[in-house]
Specification:
It contains one helix and 17 strands. The protein is mostly beta strands. A hairpin with a 2-residue loop joins β4 and β5.
C-alpha cells in the first residue's frame, strides 16, 4: 500500500491543504498473503515474486516477530529458462494440486533452504532433463520445514554422484 500526499499551489503562492491518495498494488492475482487469504499465483512472474515476499520481521515490545506469507497456485506454471534459485523459502507454498514445470536447461534446486517455518504442499513438479554433474537436488538443498503431498514426474538422463529429488538434507 502506498500513500501519496499531494499539495497544490495557486498563482499567489498559497499552498492548499494536502490531499491524501492511497493506492494498493500487488504483483499477485489476488490475496493479502495471510493464511486465510493467501497470495494467488497464476503466472511464472508471480511465482518469481515469492523471493521478494517470503517473510517480514519487525521489532515488537516482546522481541522480534516474523510474519510468514502464504502463497497458493491457481494455475499450472512453466518457469522460464532464466529462472534462478530462490535462496530461501520462509513462507508457505500451497501447490493446490497444480503443476510447476521446471525448464530443461535449469540444473539447480528451486530453493536453497526451506526454513523451519517454510513449507511446500500439494504440488506437482515436472522436469525433463539430461543432467551430468556431481550433486543435484530438485526441490531444496536443505529442508528444515515441511514438504508434503509432492508429486514428481521426472524424465531424462541423470548422471549424478549425489542425487536428491526432494532435498539434499532434511532436518
Amino acid at each position: 500500500q502506498y500513500t501519496v500526499k499531494i499539495y497544490a499551489m495557486n498563482d499567489l503562492g498559497v499552498m492548499s491543504l494536502p490531499f491524501d491518495f492511497t493506492a494498493n498494488y500487488s504483483i499477485y492475482a489476488s490475496g493479502s498473503g495471510s493464511q486465510e487469504d493467501p497470495y494467488i499465483i497464476s503466472t511464472a512472474e508471480q511465482f518469481l515474486a515469492i523471493r521478494e515476499r517470503n517473510t517480514i520481521s519487525y521489532e515488537s515490545v516482546d522481541g522480534t516477530v516474523a510474519l510468514h506469507y502464504y502463497f497458493q497456485l491457481s494455475d499450472n506454471i512453466t518457469l522460464s529458462n532464466s529462472y534462478t534459485k530462490m535462496e530461501k523459502l520462509d513462507g508457505v507454498l500451497l501447490g493446490n494440486g497444480k503443476t510447476l514445470t521446471i525448464p530443461n536447461t535449469y540444473t539447480e534446486s528451486l530453493f536453497g533452504t526451506i526454513t523451519k517455518d517454510g513449507s511446500v504442499t500439494n504440488l506437482v513438479i515436472t522436469k525433463n532433463n539430461n543432467i551430468s554433474k556431481s550433486t543435484y537436488r530438485l526441490i531444496a538443498d536443505m529442508n528444515e520445514g515441511t514438504i508434503d503431498g509432492l508429486s514428481l514426474t521426472i524424465s531424462g538422463t541423470y548422471t549424478v554422484n549425489n542425487l536428491a529429488f526432494v532435498a539434499g538434507t532434511n532436518t
